[in-house]
Each structure stands twice: as C-alpha cells, then as structure tokens.
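job 3f2a | input accepted
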Amino acid sequence: MAVMTAELDSSALTSTVVFTGRLACMTRAEAFEVVRQHGGTPSQAVTRQTNVLVVGELGWPLLDDGRPSNKLSRAGSYGIPVVSERRFLEWTGKAVPDSLHRAYSADQIATLSNLSSSTVDELVRFGLLDPRGGLFGFRDLASARQISKLLAHGIGLPEIIRSVKEIRAWLPQADLSNLRLQPGTHHSVEVEQPEGRTDKRGQFVLPVSQLQQDADDLFEQAQAAEETGNIAEAERLYRIVMKTDPTDPASPFNLGNLLRANGRKAEAEAALRATTRADPTFAEAWYNLSDLLDEQGRSEAAIDCLRRALQAAPKYVDAMFNLALLLQRSNRHKEAAGYWRRYLANDAQSEWAARARRSLKFCEMQVHLSAR
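job 3f2a | predicted structure (372 res):
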C-alpha cells in the first residue's frame, strides 16, 4: 500500500475531507464543523470521491490485528492525499507552521533523553529525528526518549533502525513519536498496541490473555476508553497508571486535558501540576496549565507557568505569544514589548506575526507615554 502525501494548501478544506485516528486538538464533530465552515464536505468514509484524509496526532489508526485502518488502506489504494492533523490546523489558522514549534537544540535533545550527542547525530542521519534549521520539536524529543529506553534495555541502535524500517513496511509513515516501542525477547523490538504486542513485522507475539498487564497496557486502555467517550473508565485507568509509575508524565498530562475538557478545572489543575512535577521540562504541560489558570483569571500564576515553559523550551513561540499577551493585559508594557520582539524574531511570516507587530507598536507607544 502506497500512501500519497502530496503537498496541498488550505483550498483542500473546500472539498471532501475524511478523518482517521484520534484528533488531539478537537473532537471529530468539531472537526466536521470546521470543514463545513470552510465550504467543504466532511465524510465518515473514504471513497473515490474523497479529496484528502487527515490523520489525528494521538496515535496511529490501527486495526486490532495491528494493520493500518481501513480508511488509510483505501486512501493508499485510491491515491488520496494523506495529511497530518497539524497541517489541518495550519489550514484553519489554528496553528503556526510546524517549524515554529521546534524549540530544542541538539544538545538539549541529548540531555533530556540521556543520549550522547553522537547518537543524536546518528539518529538524524538515519531519519529517525527530523530537525529544521538546527532545531528539534516535541515529537523528536519523544522519539529520542523511546530510543534511549530501548538502548538502556540492551537493544543496539542498528537493531532499532532495522526494526523501524520493517515496521514502516506494514505501517507507512510510522515514526517513533506515534508508536509505542517496547523491548522484546532476545534484544528485539516490539510494538505496543491496545490488543497486545506485535513484532516488527506486525505479528502478535503472544495471545492477549498471556500478556502481563503493566503501566503501558493500562495507559493504552485509558487512551482507548477516552477515544470512545468512556470518560469515567479513562479517568480510572489514568489514575491507576499515575500510582503505578509516578515518574511518567504522560498519564497526568492526558488526565488533566480530559478533566479540563469536562469542566473539572480544579482536578485538571492538580493533574497538570503532577505532570510538571514528574517532568519539569514538559513545556506543553506548563503551557496548558497556564491556559487553564488564565481562564480562571489567575493571571500571575499563568504568567509564571509560561515563564517555566520557556525555560524548558526557549523557542516555544506559542508560549512567547501568550506571555507577551498576558503581560500586555497586565499593563506591563515594557516587558511585554520584549516578548513581542522575541516572538517576531522567531515568527515573522504567519498571520499571528501581524497581530504581534500591532501589539508591539501599542506597547512601545505606552512605554513612550509613560516616560513623559
């Protein structure tokens, strides 16, 4: 199956659009409404009339036997272009280009993943990490951490590289950020899936009933429950994982976002703070926590969280933008101007840059007036 990933622009939203996999930014119903607002036709099924297939960020769409979903298979058969959720967000004006979310240097990736600089360089050469302009994104950090875990279990880098290549033979476009790889027997690599583990060729290595239920299994079950709308079960499982492995930030992060979406703000805050305790460098957790606090009118606490996000990821432009905005709203115009300049130094082209320039001009005018 060859999946087509042609270059498209926002005009694709005026055509027939189908979604597969779990969306990170919105519900499926909300995504359908966005397409309608842009003059397009959202559809539940991939047909020959489908113009583009959008793949959700949170997990690659797989069937129970580990194979790509029917939608993905049909898209490949019909030659339908496949795009990421981030590209979809760019088209709708809800996200800046992916390159602007790259906030880590090679040294930071090495430090945060416990890999050597030479190993990071090698991963780049083999295409397992994808820097742009010398900077890496959150996905690259997630990929590097997975590789570090596999190396710690005695699996050599050549085997990891070979395994990813073989996985891509049956799971096109798979990368380390949307797979959960686990060490297997005899220094092999296995793929964690909701129904069990497969080897690198997609074959289940053990019947589901024989698999030991560990934190990773529970985490996958929690994600599956959340995706199907079983919020109570997802919450229960995320909390079990948090007790099982308090050092893993993924479960409290997902739980915090889930609770926030269901209006349970105090519990969401507690979960996101647990995330930042588990991983103080988790910039997205600080960012989401800031957004939650700002909704409650707790501006100073929100500002502090955005500063923490930028300490963890100095080139995180979303955090720069929001921090400048909150400082401006607090009439701290001189400091806000500094962050608007910092934002524009990293993003001078997007539609958000135009707003940043206007805000910078306003802050500079207020600073000038106050100096009189």
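job 3f2a | The beta strands are 16-20, 41-43, 52-55, 82-84, 181-183, 189-193, 196-198.
job 3f2a | closed
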